[in-house]
């Protein structure tokens, strides 16, 4: 397990080659398919892991790198894929401390892994250094206003940042660490700097400098472009022209909405060192209680496997109180696909640099002072081979005149973990997600019997059980989804016939799983109680004559299983 993605960030050709190597080495349980094409013509790769990939059964989804700058998501998605491949290729091998029965369970789960949702954005970032939030394009027609276009201006091949002395500048150079820009305070004597993206101004009038904005010269943030509670641009920056107007987000929704058997979803980002769970649109007090108990189990695993806390998107991750982020991917996965969905921000820069914790997690991104910037800069020098803070080079800009270029490259160390840390992060995430995947419902025909019932008649009795952690509907809140049908059992006869043909199809209903999440108040030693056998159901059919009967049980959510039995008189 020393593939390059565990110690570097792969470009698209390297990523594609890695996926193809796995497919060629393990054709029996690795399928590689492209679920769409990016605007620049790159394939949107999805790996499907598990034998007989078209057999419908409980499945999970992992995606990484929907934000172009968050490359480590690709590494972790690939690491999870590699671990699942190992699970099938070397069934007895040790894997993150998982016991044999859990590894057996995982071999029955189908894994869909999309390592790079935004290949155009990642490629622009890797090859040019240019900041791209998601996709490097802006398709809004006939725009005339002045704006920044990021590009290399000094010929070093990278589009980083520029600083220019300006009496109105909001930054000064740190007196302790030359080159480091910090926010200007009232007492600072100057010189003062303006900071711009390295690039040029389109529609420049010769005097007016436009404000750069966080999407750089791109239109859409893919994580605001999904259909659940999509709001237009004036309400939600980065929304895109309409829900799923980008080929990347559209391909994801096309693929996943045709798979009602998806029950868990991991959406990988990099900035923060935290797990973010639904709901993103309302407080926990309005969340389904059973869902919340399940997420407490995930939080425990997250803490144990990675050391990162799990917080609610709404409670701790709204940049403005009571203003939820609209059109994000996990809300789609949780509310519309009924998935146990969560985000991981893979890189805990703040923790690594020794910054103070904030009450709400999202405040860590903004409540920073000069001392914090110094800590980050020193951490970069000591632990990141000084990859982020770089020397400024004097440059005569064709539009703005004398300035300096290049002082900051946040790609490795700030936006993503240093190369040396990728492997450890991959291991922790895989150890956690494999446990989440093992929560899959597990429908079995526990018993199938045929008994004489007088004369020509036999009675066939089937006991259907869900031995999985999750109920057959998945999350409790997913039960209400219109497509989340209950289990059916259908008996087909050969040679013999059903006494009442209308009995062929019988409703099984949803079957409970054994899992209860954590801290739901059940299970304490002073109040030991179980539920009844709500995870099992016994059905029967009356058959006339001799022959065979085949029983098919399942739903679109759990997939189907078939068992058959001989119908005959006892000898
Ligand atoms: Zn992100």
Task: Report on this structure.
With 571 residues, the chain is α+β, with helices and mostly antiparallel strands. It folds into two domains: 4-125 and 219-352 and 416-437, Zn peptidases (Aminopeptidase); 443-567, Sandwich (Immunoglobulin-like). The chain contains eleven helices and 24 strands. The chain has an eight-stranded mixed beta sheet with strand order 1-2-4-3-11-14-12-13, with helices on both faces. The protein has a six-stranded antiparallel beta sheet with strand order 8-7-9-6-16-15, with no helix packed on it. The protein has a four-stranded antiparallel beta sheet with strand order 17-18-22-20, with no helix packed on it. The longest helix has 18 residues, at 72-89. The mean pLDDT is 95. Zinc ion (ZN) binds at residues 67, 70, 269.
Q: What is the 3D form? A: elongated
User: Structural class from helices and strands?
Assistant: alpha+beta
Architecture per CATH nomenclature, i.e. the level-2 architecture of the largest domain: 3-Layer(aba) Sandwich
Q: What is the C-level CATH assignment of the largest domain?
A: Alpha Beta
How would you write the strand order of the largest sheet? 1-2-4-3-11-14-12-13
Helical proportion, percent range: 10-25%
Mean pLDDT across every amino acid position = 95
Number of continuous helical runs: 11
User: Bound compounds, please?
Assistant: zinc ion
Write the layout of secondary structure elements.
Layout: H1 12-25, E1 30-37, E2 43-49, E3 59-64, H2 72-89, H3 100-107, E4 110-114, H4 119-128, E5 147-150, E6 161-165, E7 171-173, E8 181-183, E9 192-197, E10 199-202, H5 247-257, E11 262-271, E12 274-277, H6 289-306, E13 310-312, H7 313-316, H8 329-336, E14 340-347, H9 349-352, H10 370-383, E15 393-397, E16 401-405, H11 422-437, E17 443-452, E18 457-466, E19 487-494, E20 497-498, E21 505-509, E22 536-544, E23 547-555, E24 559-567
Parallel strand pairs: 3-4, 3-11, 11-14, 12-13
Antiparallel strand pairs: 1-2, 2-4, 5-10, 6-9, 6-16, 7-8, 7-9, 12-14, 15-16, 17-18, 18-22, 19-21, 19-23, 20-22, 23-24
Helix pairs in contact: 2-11, 6-11
Zinc ion binds at residues 67, 70, 269.
């Amino acid at each position: 397990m020393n593939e390059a993605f565990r110690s570097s960030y792969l470009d698209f050709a390297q990523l594609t080659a890695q996926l193809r190597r796995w497919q060629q080495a393990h054709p029996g349980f690795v399928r590689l398919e492209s679920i769409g094409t990016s605007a620049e013509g790159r394939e949107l790769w999805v790996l499907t892991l598990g034998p007989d990939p078209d057999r419908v059964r409980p499945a999970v989804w992992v995606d990484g790198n929907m934000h172009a700058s968050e490359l480590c998501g690709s590494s972790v998605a690939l690491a999870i894929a590699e671990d699942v491949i190992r699970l099938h290729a070397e069934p007895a091998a040790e894997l993150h401390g998982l016991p044999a029965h859990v590894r057996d369970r995982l071999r029955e789960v189908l894994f869909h892994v999309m390592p790079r949702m935004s290949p155009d954005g990642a490629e622009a970032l890797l090859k040019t250094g240019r900041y791209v939030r998601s996709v490097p394009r802006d398709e809004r027609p006939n725009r005339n206003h002045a704006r920044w276009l990021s590009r290399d201006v000094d010929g070093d091949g990278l589009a980083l940042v520029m600083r220019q002395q300006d009496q109105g500048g909001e930054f000064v150079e740190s007196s302790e660490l030359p080159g480091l820009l910090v926010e200007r305070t009232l007492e600072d004597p100057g010189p003062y700097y303006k900071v711009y993206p390295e690039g040029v101004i389109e529609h420049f009038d010769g005097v007016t400098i436009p404000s750069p904005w966080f999407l750089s010269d791109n239109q859409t943030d893919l994580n605001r472009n999904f259909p659940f509670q999509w709001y237009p641009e004036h309400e939600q920056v980065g929304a895109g022209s309409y829900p799923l107007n980008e080929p990347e987000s559209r391909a994801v929704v096309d693929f996943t909405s045709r798979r009602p058997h998806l029950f868990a979803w991991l959406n990988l980002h990099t900035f923060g060192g935290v797990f973010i769970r639904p709901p993103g649109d309302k407080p926990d007090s309005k969340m389904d209680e059973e869902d919340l108990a399940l997420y407490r189990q995930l939080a425990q695993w997250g803490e144990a496997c990675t050391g990162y806390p799990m917080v609610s998107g709404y409670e701790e991750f709204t940049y403005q109180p009571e203003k939820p982020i609209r059109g994000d991917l996990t809300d789609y996965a949780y509310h519309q696909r009924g998935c146990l969905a969560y985000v991981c921000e893979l890189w805990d820069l703040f923790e690594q640099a020794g910054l103070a914790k904030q009450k709400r997690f999202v405040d860590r991104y903004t409540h920073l002072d000069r001392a914090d910037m110094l800590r980050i800069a020193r951490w970069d020098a000591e632990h990141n081979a000084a990859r982020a803070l770089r020397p400024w080079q004097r440059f005569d800009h064709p539009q703005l005149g004398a300035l300096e270029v290049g002082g900051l490259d946040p790609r490795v160390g700030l936006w993503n973990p240093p190369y040396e840390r990728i492997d450890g992060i991959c291991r922790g995430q895989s150890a956690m997600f494999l446990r989440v995947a093992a929560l899959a419902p597990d429908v079995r025909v526990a018993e199938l019997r045929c008994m004489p019932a007088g004369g020509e008649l036999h009675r066939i009795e089937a006991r259907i059980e869900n031995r999985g952690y999750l109920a057959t509907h998945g999350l409790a809140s997913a039960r209400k989804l219109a497509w989340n049908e209950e289990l059916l059992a259908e008996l087909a006869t050969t040679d013999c016939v059903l006494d009442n043909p209308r009995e062929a199809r019988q409703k099984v209903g949803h079957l409970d799983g054994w899992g209860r999440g954590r801290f739901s108040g059940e299970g304490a030693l002073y109040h030991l109680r179980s539920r009844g056998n709500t995870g099992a159901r016994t059905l029967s059919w009356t058959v006339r004559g001799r022959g065979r009967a085949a029983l098919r049980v399942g739903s679109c959510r759990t997939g189907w299983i078939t068992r058959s039995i001989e119908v005959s008189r006892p000898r």
